Amino acid sequence: MSKMSKEKETLETTFDKTCELIYKLASERISQKYDEWRKGQSYGCGINGFLPRNRKVLGYVLTCKRTKDNPYLLTPSLVKEFLESHDIFNDENEIYWGNDANVYLEELFTTVLLEMQESNDYTKYWMGIPLKTEREIRDFYCEFLHDKEDVCVSLKDDFVDFTFNSYKYFELVGEVGEIKKDSIVQKDSNGALTFYDLPKKIAIYADKILLPFVSGICLSILIDTFEKASTE
Length: 232
Fold this sequence. Notes:
- By secondary structure, the protein is mainly α.
- 60% of the residues lie in helices and 6% in strands.
- A hairpin with a 2-residue loop joins strand 1 and strand 2.
């Protein structure tokens, strides 16, 4: 293998653990709704009565089992039947991503950043801030996000935009900077971001949203450090 091939291999991050986390959260969310539904039904009423057209797929979802025919856990048919048959989810986005990202935001942030460590394309933007281990990332989150409400709200808002297939970015137009919006993928442009091709979508989240967000915080830390040193 050539040096260039090795470098290319090192730079690729598949975000498998992040995807598994998202699948697990969706499975738990749907399992909770299913269990709540069963409590109000007669004895023996199970999956067949809950989602009759997608009972087999639902069985896989409840156990968070993906198959060769269904690599992304949730199918369009399953989501459609949910919305048509039951008043338990407000909309498509809630099925895929839940109704409160705060519940899992720290875990998601930690998991994505841990997987970003596999690529030097990302870590060079941390400017020496220690973000290599889970403990370091969780400490970073606690000190610079959780304890600063406006920063944490910004992270959540950016993620919610992502789940609706949108992200903001800064662009210099002439001598004036503008905040612009774009879609993650055109295919999901009319609704919630689905799980189809989820690894690629998480890669976009990492590159277009989380990378500038975290590197901005790292830059602020670096500037604050220099300012404190200059006044001592």
